[in-house]
Write a structure and sequence with these properties.
Length: 141
């Protein structure tokens, strides 16, 4: 039987899938975006647009799945389990959500590059933080 703060296997795999899709589509977009000025720029432009759609859809799924996390977070917090990496995960996800909002809704030429850089940095870091959180949680069980 799973400890009461652990996520059920199907939900855990849904989270893993959503985060993996977010990372893969975001990293692929970075590459496609860099290639837009090349000789095959139009193909890369189309690929970047498609990848942003996949990334946005995965982000919506992830935000929906994170809505269930208060159960996981509340239970683990009361059990005093994995608090440090949990707080880091929450903070990083909050930054990613806020910067995604800024990228999508802010047209400011001053704020947009700042939001983009932050979003890329946190997005590239989150897989390592995610693995650290999972490993720390499993190590303590």
């Amino acid at each position: 039987m799973l400890p009461f703060w652990r996520l059920d296997l199907p939900f855990r795999f849904a989270i893993y899938f959503a985060f993996a899709t977010l990372f893969a589509s975001g990293a692929a977009w970075l590459g496609a975006d860099q290639m837009k000025e090349s000789a095959n720029g139009e193909i890369w432009q189309q690929a970047a647009a498609y990848l942003l759609k996949v990334h946005g859809g995965a982000a919506m799924l992830t935000v929906m799945l994170l809505g269930v996390f208060p159960l996981h977070i509340g239970r683990a917090w009361r059990a005093k389990k994995n608090r440090a990496t949990g707080i880091v995960m929450l903070a990083c996800n909050a930054v990613l959500i806020a910067t995604a909002f800024g990228l999508y809704y802010l047209a400011s030429e001053t704020l947009r590059p700042w939001a983009s850089d932050l979003h890329i940095a946190f997005g590239l870091a989150i897989p390592l933080l995610f693995l650290a959180h999972v490993k720390a949680g499993r190590r303590r069980n």
